[in-house]
Amino acid sequence: KDSLKITSLKGLSFLDAGAGSGLFSLAAYRLGADKVFSFDYDPESVACTRELKKRYFVDSENWIINQGSVLDEQYLDDLPSFDVVYSWGVLHHTGAMWQAMGNLIKKVNEKGYFFISIYNDQGRTSRFWCWVKWLYNYLPNFLRWPLTTLCLMGCWGPMILSDLMRGQPFKSWREYGKKRGMSPWHDVVDWVGGYPFEVAKPEEVFEFCCQHGFVLKKLLTKGGGLGGNQFVFVNNKK
Question: Would you put residue 176 in left (φ > 0), alpha (ψ -120 to 50) or beta?
Answer without folding.
Answer: alpha
